[in-house]
Amino acid sequence: MERLGPLAQFLRARRALVQPEAVALRRGASARRVDGLRREEVALLAGISTDYYLKLEQGRELHPSTTVLDGIGRALALEPHLLLHLHRLARPPLAPAPRTDGAVSPTLLGLIRSMPGVPCHVLTRRLDLVYVDPLAERLSRAFRVGGNLVAMVFRPEAPRTAAWHVDARRAVAYLRASVDPHDDGPEIARLLDELRALDPEFEVLWELHESGVPNGAPTFFAHPEVGTMELRYQAFGLPGTGGQSLGMYVPAPGGPSAERLQLLAQLVDDESLLGDRGAPRKPGATTSR
Amino acid sequence: MEQVDALLAEFVESLALTPAAVVDARWDVVASNALARAVSPSLAVGTNLAEATLLGGSARRTLREWDVVATRMADLLARPLSRDDDTTPLHGLTVAMEHPEVGRLDLTYELLRVTGAEQTVILGHAAVASESERRLLTLAARLGPAAR
User: Fold this and answer.
1) Which CATH architecture has domain A106-274?
2) Nearest CA-CA distance, residue A97 and chain B, Å
3) Which of B53, B61, B50, B43 is nearest to B99 (CA)?
4) Regarding the domain delimited by A6-89, which CATH topology (the fold level of the hierarchy) does it fall under?
5) How many structural domains is chain B composed of?
6) pLDDT digits over A238-256, tens only?
7) Among all residues of chain B, which has the CA nearest to that of A103?
8) Can you tell me the distance from the alpha carbon of A199 to that of A192, in angstroms, rounded to the nearest whole number?
9) Out of B15, B87, B110, whose CB is closest to A108?
10) Is this structure's pTM higher than 0.90?
């Protein structure tokens, strides 16, 4: 299956997940119908021939027109962010990015230093952490350079609560949105293998083919020094870096989380004034919601 | 003008010590915080930042090296920031200006791409412990908590 192109994989996976009612098809009274549409049904709803749709699922047609994609999006009842993802899958692969040294722009570091009250990290396309600022390090011991945002969710010691499943699904969709869908190079393959080895649930979620940057998603941090904070994630793309992004954790203005985060920033600041010989750091634990 | 995501607008406003603005694909300013507007009238919502930089009288009067900034602006206009495959490094743009109230301000602006929208966030910063940082803080303090 993995040898099929990303567009074909996506169509097969999503077709199986559509509830017929979502696209105004009735489950026949007699038929023991389960979720999922037949290829002919998708083609009919999308206004294309069954033959043509079959070609798309078999990977014999890779770049359908935007009109066809919009029709398929309707047929599969795709939400707007997944429709965008579908369009992305149908575009030709990106030219292989020239190897960058992975360095973070010095002026970006200047910006991050000028906002000591905002926990920030810089991520690669694979969601590996390549920079973590002092406040983010203090916020969670999982935020360390060399870590991976998805791997930290699937680490074995995180309790598999209902809230964890929400976080995990979101993290996997974030990875889909972040990586180049046409990139099946060794670095991506290694990460996927690592994640599959951490938890078989990863593969289940990966095969949902969901895709989305979790902007605005609430993340809960249970911090031993200042208490629990609810922070919202904001990620920005860094143009010209070959896929790096800047992620920040932002509290709702004026609320208790904003107050606690400010307190934590003060602790970090006090210690940096003492220099590295100051009190030993006690990085906080993160919980999944 | 393209709508700004409500949480993004709130984020921009919550940055009390960082001049912050959001521009759309045409460089129309679609959101900005009080400090950005205090730094430059070019960062007021509804202004076209490219036009204000290249053609505006205020930019010509206040930017010390207007021609350098104008050239960078023209480059940016020719380079859509939403391209995924762009690998030409885009370092922060340092702009030196004569601010009518606090004097010379050397600010570096980072351009960050908003995911899922054809928008760019512009965040300004001064070098740590510089005179410009002190002046920026002075400007922020004048705005007071009410204006933020």
Assistant:
1) 2-Layer Sandwich (3.30)
2) 7
3) B61
4) 434 Repressor (Amino-terminal Domain) (1.10.260)
5) 1
6) 988 888 999 999 999 889 9
7) B89
8) 11
9) B110
10) no
